[in-house]
Specification:
- The protein is α+β, with helices and mostly antiparallel strands.
- The chain has 27 helices and 39 strands.
- Strands 11-12-14-21-18-17-16-19 form an 8-stranded mixed beta sheet, with no helix packed on it. Strands 26-34-33-32-29-27-28 form a 7-stranded mixed beta sheet, with helices on both faces. A 5-stranded antiparallel beta sheet has the order 1-2-3-5-4, with helices on one face.
- The longest helix is centred in the first third of the chain and has 28 residues.
- The radius of gyration is 42 Å and the shape is elongated.
- The N and C termini lie far apart (100 Å).
- It binds pyridoxal-5'-phosphate.
Amino acid sequence: MSIFNSLPPKINQIYLIKWLKLNYSIFYNKKITLKKLNSERDKNFIINIDKKSTYVLKISNPEESIHLLKLQDIILKKLNKRSDIKNFIPKKIHSSIKIYKDELDRTCNVRILNFIKGKMYANVNHNKKLENSLGTLLGHLSKELQNLNDPYAIRKFEWDPSNISWINKEIQMFKNKNKKIIIKNLKEHNIFTTKNINNLRFSLTHGDANNYNLVVNKNKVCGLLDYGDMIYAPTINDLAVSLSYALMNKEDLYSTLKNIVTSYHNIFQITFDEIFSLMTLVKARLTITVVMAEKQRKKFPDNKYLSISEKDAWRLLYKLDLINPYLLIFLIRDICKYPILKNYESVNNFIKKNQFSSVLDTNLNQKNKSIISFASNSIFSKSYVHKPVPLTKKINSYLKNNDSEIGIGLYQEKRNVYQGSNYISQLNSKHRRDIHLGVDIFAKAGTNIRAPLDGKVFILKDNAFEYDYGPTVILEHEIDVSEKFYTIYGHLSKKCLKVLKVGKKIKKGKIIAEIGNYPINGNWPPHLHFQIAIHMMGEDENFPGVSEQILSHLWSKISPDPNLILGMPNSFFKNNEKIENLLSKRKSLISNSLSISYKKPLHLLEAKNQYFYDDKGREYLDCVNNISHVGHSHPKIHAAMVEQSLKLNTNTRYLYKIMNVYSKKLLSKFPQKLDTVFFVCTGSEANDLAYRIAQNYTKSKDVLVMDNAYHGHTNTLINLSPYKFKGKGGLGKKDFVHIVDMPDGLRGRWKYSDKDWVKKYILQAQSVVDEIYKNKKTLSCFFIESILGCGGQIILPPSYLKEVFKIIRKRKALCIIDEVQTGFGRVGNFFWGFEEHGIIPDIVTLGKPMGNGHPIAAVVTTKKIANKFNNGMEYFNSFGGNPVSCSIGNAVLDVIENQKLQKHAKITGDYFLKSLNRIKSKFSKLISEVRGRGLFLGIDLINNENNLPNEKLATLIINKMRKRGILLSTDGPYHNVIKIKPPMTFNKDNVDLVCFELNNIFKNF
Ligand SMILES: Cc1ncc(COP(=O)(O)O)c(C=O)c1O
């Protein structure tokens, strides 16, 4: 007969007392009292001797195996020798097991143990300290039981949660919801325990660390009783059994779980595989409890202990039933500090490395966006009432006022808009699931949604409950045979339910659905909920889109930031200052002589390669910032700066290697004759110093400059820059400054139509120089840019420079080339713009691109000229040539070389010129000329009717292009030339985009 069918011992207490006195010397002649204890199948008593010493008397069920009782004795003895646990284990008082005949004359075995003082765990309030102490005790127990075993412990036992298949034949006792839960638990048990059983560690287990077998004293678990259920089973059973009771009646399951599991794991590490089964074992034990209760109650209606936990077990089962079993696994992995998902890193890396297409018809970054927040302090959620009509209106007018087409709802935002009981946390009923796991894209209902990468329809479902997703699509994406991840699209229109099918393959960029309208979209303002899931967690209809805050770390690993795919700039998500505030502060703090581009200024937040990103998360193609030569925010340049500035930064009065290394590399880019460098900080400083050097060398002051040239902002250089001194606020030409005509065949004094036009400009230069000397003045130098930037990107005609240099040198004056704009490979065919002209200047000045944004500039000249400058007056520059600047300059040269940027500028530039010429041939009434070298180009715009420079059109194009996300600027004496000088990473696609948009503008002009 099974011991569950055998009645517990039937005892006559008077007789029992006599028997005890007779059989145990400790009771002999003592006054003893007995108090009955609860037991399922035995009869147990507390024995009190003279109201002092207390013992526990255990009279076993007649059907109990003597071997198991002996086993208990052996184990108790052994555990009592282990220092970490002995205090928690009852001590054996009897020397041998004695036989007692009960009222039914059945043979019952008797044992006596010491009494552990305290209250039952079931009868005290639970808190973190107590729960921690429980976990610690269980951890020690599992640890010690690892190496103990006994053949009699290897047995089948109904209370063993790792083996519950016997329940299958008991299901018919249950009905409705209870039956469903039991069936579901059996299924889950099969997946999470049976199939995993070979991965679990087995050992002797206590088998019944329930709330009535745990003794508590001073808010700590101090004893573990009742070793009658010991069985060789998965080690993790003990933790599972204990949890199944400890979690009963807890509002905050999460904390209890965390408290017990953490402290258990600290003592005895739970394996990754054990975690997979742990919570199913908990559910299994609870299922056993309710099934046993149902069964036993029928047999022994009087034994109340049999159903002592039944109600509580059901309540906990109902709760756990609503929690995804994978979530429980992930949660315990997280508690035990295991990776939540083994493939998180590989999926994440795949996503980070991949290029995705847009989920909307156009790239999100080509739209102005505003954040639509549902945080508690947001205008959209204050006194929130779930009414989609007014909310939609509010969102739309907010977007309009903020010049935005699209609203973006934030990932991991804590929101107060999730109403209804569905959003109450099952892990802690005081909490709600209110942390958003996706990104929302608010756009018009009917907006197309496209697959950002190849995939397959995995779930297609109308989750038609209030506050839910409405029509939902989940795509599965395969990284390789074993690795997959998912993208979730919620709040769609019903169209996708007809058009798609589960299993249908979807190509990257293909339309999968459209944004739905209320009420069918879950009754929300029209938007797409976009989410990534690295694991589907066994879901086949829906997937959580919000989580409780306590689990947001965990969820960030299951559903990482969708922006990894959407690719909006991170700076957009920061709490950015309003543009109006920025502007008014700037105006009040900074001189207004500094201009700001565009009527509606751009508030830039970040930049990468050839792109800027503004406060609307909008991407702008940068066609003008040649200073960021090798691309904005280049990591190599940044690394060089950081590495050196963490090491040494000082001035040129000390020796440091990087200056020599860099100087050598820089000078190697020049003709041999130009072998000496002076480091300064800006182009202006370089030109200023070059002029000083020339004055010193020639002992002259007069200087020849090109008309419309700009050489810098210092006092001296304004005088050398007709672009400035002839313009607004300019004081006019000084006597020592002489101007030659720009050799502009288009609009200059002599035109292309004149076959001698170049010669005539050379002669003009000759006559200006002659005039200087006629007036008894002498010339120090001739300053000229190798391409005339402020002059309107004008290319010097062949032989012009060669001939003018001859004129200058005849007068022993110096020829200075200003390469501040054009240097460092930009012109494509050559590293320096002057090289095209077959001349070697006496001095070359460098700046802008030299440090990719870091202020470093230089004067490069010959030893002879430099030596003459060394006239006793020290040349000192606090910052010029410091180690950090040199390190950055050196890195810029390396990047130009390693990324082959000069060649790239040549190829891209030629392609650009060709494409622009194609536009010019189509719109020859608006474009007179496109010109340039490499990535230094200009488009000269004219008036439809009279071929005159068209400043208005140039300005209009600049503004229209800005609206299309392309930044350009104008220059030239008539401000009619569109200037193009982008970072050198600019590519053919960028060229195509610029030309496409220009073409559109010209077409509609
Ligand atoms: C040709 C040329 N030279 C010199 C300078 C002055 O350089 P910086 O602004 O670094 O002083 C500029 C600046 O625009 C320039 O275009």
